[in-house]
Amino acid sequence: MERPQAESPKRCRGDAGTALVEMAFIITPLCMLLFGIVIYGYLMSFRQNMTQAATEGARAGAVVPPDAHSSPKTYNDAIAAATDATNHSLQSFGKQCGSDGYSCAAGVDWCVDNGVPSTTTKCITVTVSYDYANHPLMPSVPIVTHFIPNRFDSTFTAQVTK
Asked: Could you tell me which residues come within 8 angstroms of residue 144 by beta carbon, excluding any fewer than 6 positions away?
């Protein structure tokens, strides 16, 4: 007796395999959203640390009196104290002014209130900047890292005591 010839396999019809395709369409934006949330949270924490460093520096410089032996009054001691305090604050999370993309600046000038400079009060301003473009903190994630600024700046101003 002759054996019947096996039928050739037919193409699958229906929705077999669509779950895999649907998952591929959903998982990509879901992963980008997840990585975006993680990166955003990390950078917010990083920015807060920079702001805290600028704040600590300005507060330290604000309580140092003007240089006693200079005429007219200079604020070199206040600027040095502000720079030291800013650097110390950055060192608490392993960084330093002038390295690894960080730059710190401090200066004393007349306070400005609503756009009008004061003629009687001096303020110290500390700025901490980070060059993110040349020193990225996170690995590059397509589309997500496109929205990260190239530079982070934090500035704080405090009134100098007399």
From this structure: 32, 35, 36, 39
